[in-house]
């Protein structure tokens, strides 16, 4: 059974977290329009529900299988009666690194552009950005590194 579609834009992050907790990529994809797209934290770009479901399903059943995704600060901006932008800072804990241990918690900001339909609010696009505290940008010096120019 698919997770309920939010009836208000500000409820979308909680619905996303519930879908995450289901460990089913299809539950996440059900929150998106059929032709939606999703950009993850490393820049992977998926278009369409099936393309959004598949990598989420894999991750939720492997390295994210023991994670908790908690919504934090939420900001909603209505773009008319049928569209909204929702930003949410999430905390992710319980991720398994490649060595099999447990990684520390991390924060991301997910930006959702929502469209109201007959069933409620679905995302037409989403982008996930890791939060790197105290850093200003990334530099590629043979490997991507978060840096802060203010400390030089």
TrEMBL record:
Highest taxon of source: Bacteria
Database matches in InterPro entries: DUF4440 (IPR027843), NTF2-like_dom_sf (IPR032710), Steroid_delta5-4_isomerase (IPR011944)
Transmembrane segments: none
Domain annotation DUF4440: ranges: 15-122
Protein name stated in the entry: DUF4440 domain-containing protein
């Amino acid at each position: 059974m698919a997770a309920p579609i939010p009836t208000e834009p500000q409820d979308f992050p909680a619905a996303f977290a519930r879908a995450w907790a289901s460990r089913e990529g299809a539950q996440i994809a059900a929150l998106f329009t059929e032709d939606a797209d999703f950009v993850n934290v490393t820049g992977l770009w998926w278009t369409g529900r099936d393309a959004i479901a598949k990598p989420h399903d894999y991750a939720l059943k492997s390295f994210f299988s023991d994670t908790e995704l908690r919504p934090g600060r939420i900001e909603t901006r209505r773009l008319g009666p049928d569209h909204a932008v929702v930003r949410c800072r999430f905390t992710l804990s319980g991720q398994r690194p490649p060595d099999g241990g447990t990684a520390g918690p991390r924060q991301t900001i997910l930006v959702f552009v929502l469209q109201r339909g007959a069933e409620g609010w679905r995302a037409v696009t989403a982008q996930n950005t890791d939060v790197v505290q105290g850093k200003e940008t990334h530099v590629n010096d043979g490997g991507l590194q978060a840096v802060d120019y203010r400390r030089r």
